[in-house]
Design brief:
Layout lengths: L6 E6 L3 H18 L11 E7 L3 H17 L3 E11 L5 E6 L3 H16 L14 E5 L10 H11 L5 E6 L1 E5 L9 E6 L11
Antiparallel strand pairs: 1-2, 1-7, 3-4, 3-6, 4-5, 7-8
Helix pairs in contact: 2-3
Length: 198
């Protein structure tokens, strides 16, 4: 198993109404199933996993990400319904559409980090982009199969279809208690906006 101390997560942050709706659903699910304590994991879309074993790795990864962000413009994060990951994650997610802009920046960052041995993606294929609302990571307890099934049935009654603008990416340490630790913020500074889906 990977050492969490040697990991960083490059993430996009939902904002505005999308974030408010996502937080409301996360709170509703936790109130019903009591998976977390009162401090819920922060909502985000993971773009890449990064392996950092020394300070030089962090600097090199940050330079790579900053260079890619210089070429990419702010883009829309599009949410359309829910997705689910089964055991061991038992994760209820908001489904993030794989738009052209999102897929391109993810691929480019991954390619450059992988060439330097800095990517620690747990699988080879591209991400199924998502916003985890509730799962077994950082949970106080693992919910049962019956609870997981009930949660899936509950969220499928709700219709979530909205967008949020992403203007920067953040590099997070894998902890949020007592506080979320952000190593770097990378502004998307490119000029050509892309709207088409793949």
């Amino acid at each position: 198993m990977d050492n969490l101390e040697e990991k960083r997560f490059l993430v996009a942050i939902p904002k505005g109404k999308l974030l408010s709706v996502a937080e409301a659903i996360q709170i509703e699910l936790n109130n019903k199933f009591s998976i977390y304590d009162s401090k819920l994991p922060p909502l985000h879309v993971t773009i890449e996993h990064i392996r950092v074993t020394r300070d030089e790795d962090l600097k090199e990864a940050a330079n790579i990400i900053d260079g890619v962000c210089e070429r990419h413009a702010p883009f829309e994060l599009r949410i359309n319904g829910f997705s689910f990951f089964g055991p061991p994650y038992k994760s209820i997610n908001l489904h993030v559409e794989k738009t052209n802009a999102l897929a391109r920046i993810s691929r480019e960052i991954h390619k450059h980090l992988q060439q330097k041995g800095l990517s620690s993606r747990p699988f080879r294929e591209e991400w199924e982009f998502h916003i985890s609302l509730i799962n077994t990571v950082f949970a106080n307890r693992e919910w049962t199969e019956a609870e997981f099934k009930d949660a899936k049935e509950l969220v499928m009654k709700w219709h979530v279809n909205m967008t949020s603008q992403v203007e920067y990416l953040e590099l997070w340490r894998p902890k949020f208690k007592p506080n979320l630790e952000v190593d770097r913020v990378f502004l998307l500074r490119g000029m050509n906006r892309e709207c088409d889906q793949l």
